[in-house]
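Rotation project, supervised by the postdoc (A.L.). Task for the rotation student: set up a whole-complex structure prediction and record inputs and outputs verbatim in this book. Inputs entered:
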Amino acid sequence: MSAMPAPRSAELGGAGPTSLVRTLGLYVLLAVAALAVAFPLLIAFSYSFMAESQIASFPPPILPTRPTLANFQEVVERALRPNSPLPIFHYLLNSFVVSTAVVAGQLVTASLAAYAFAFFAFPGKNLLFLVFLATLMVPWEATIVPNYITVRDLNWLDTYQGLAVPFMATGFGTFLLRQSFLQLPGELYDAAVVDGAGKFRFLWQIVLPLSRPALGTLAVYSFLATWNQYFWPLLVTNQPLMRTVQVGIVQLKFEESTRWGLVMAGVVIVVLPTIILLVLGQRQLVRGLTAGAIKG
Amino acid sequence: MARVQTAAAGRLDARARGRKRARAVRDLGEGLLYLAPSLFLFAVFVFIPLGRTVYLSLFYTSPIGAPREFAGFDHYVDLVTNPAFRRSLGTTFLFVLYTVPGSIVIALGLAVLANRRLRGINVFRTLFSSTIAVSLAVAATIWALMLNPSIGLFNYVLSLVGVRGPAWLTDPTAALISVSLVTIWAALGFNTIVLLAGLQGIPEELYESAKIDGAAGLGIFRNITLPMLSPSLFFLLVVNVIQVFQAFTQVHALTRGGPVEATNVLVYSIYLDAFVNFQFGYASAQALVLFAVILTLTLVQFRVIERRVHYQ
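Outputs recorded:
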């Protein structure tokens, strides 16, 4: 190893010029690293505002000399054309509908199951929980051929239900919610059930409202995962109007392989919703996921 | 069981047992009611399909996927003897080797860097984890621009230091490296988040007492940070290996398995055999072999590497 400055868990701080220089150095290091990691994203944003003539110039540019909205305009115009080969607003709508449906479905199925696993006593409970965990271990390529056949035989190709229903149950989400439900005091449940409040009412009126952070984590996570899916939408959709954004962007890249400004405008439109979701939901996502990992 | 007891006690016992059993049945029914939506979906989209994959792998199938003629283990024998499959398996292993260590090591650097109490550190943490919001399709598209041999920044930067960059995506020796670069970058966000959380779980006192004992710099990193972080590192190793073994999107978006099969990883080959050549039986056999390889590798990691993981 080289003579790099030693990593510390935390800057304990201290007065004096040396610590000031060190802090400054740290900020420089952090900024350089952040720039390197985010560089591809920044390039995509920058090129989406660049004229094609500048993109083709040498040396390759980094920032647009004369920022233009022409690329975005063209994406929008193409999308609005009748029988457009690039109906990007449909792609966005499809991805949004499917992701929202999967989130809703997972929240319902996982909270019902997690509630039973966390609060009920019934024979075979542990075995059934193991069945849920086993679904995490079956890789998707081992089921993709029969799943495709199932969806095709249901006449679900090119439909929202074909895109969404196979993902509406989740072993991961059930596990996550169970861990969160288990932290609620059991006496609360006993009291409520003796009270005759009914088990379902207890779930609806007490457990779910108290578990909003965990439900939020699951929602953000599964929205991201569904929005970013590629293989399944590629398989089960053929009509341009039923494609999702991820399939659409790759298709655009292959069809317009010389129009990089246009392609990057498409990239920005596709990636913006998830970037916003990350900025808004990051704390939720990170805390929830890592809490689950540690307790798991 | 209760045969030695008196008749009366036996009757009482039986009645109690009956009540107990009725209650157990009722409890089970109620539990199943809440589990039913999930169990139904798992049955239809996970367990039955898994069984059908096994079944299909033993048959020759029609182009629409109906089993036509019993094949026995023909597909499996084909796999073992087919050099194309072995090449594909080799490519997949190489792909794992190119991506997993690199991505974890870079993420470790980022996490260590971001694990400080500084003003505005959350901005940097968000930037470091930003690729978690970027899909592989989008990542591949952006990297295709950067790796473009005529207008891309990558080869321009290389030319500044006197290196002539290859035609990344169309050169058989460079294509797998290109796909690996995309994969490493896309995995950074998740890996950094996990390692940062692991670092934050290390108690401050450990560092304090190490400093009192006269440890410093690299010594602290090697003797405290790394061992304490080993559960997170192990977790990432297992998860990353599994994910990279199943990679498809970046290959489909960048190289379509080419040039000359240089990036034809296993899942891509399964996709071609099933959905382009309509050899569902053969594709199913490949999928199950891949499943077995992943499972074995995961078990091996647990047996061999987890021994060196330090749990609190």
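Student's summary: Chain A has a mean pLDDT of 87.
Supervisor addendum: The CA atoms of residues 79 and 89 of chain A lie 7 Å apart.
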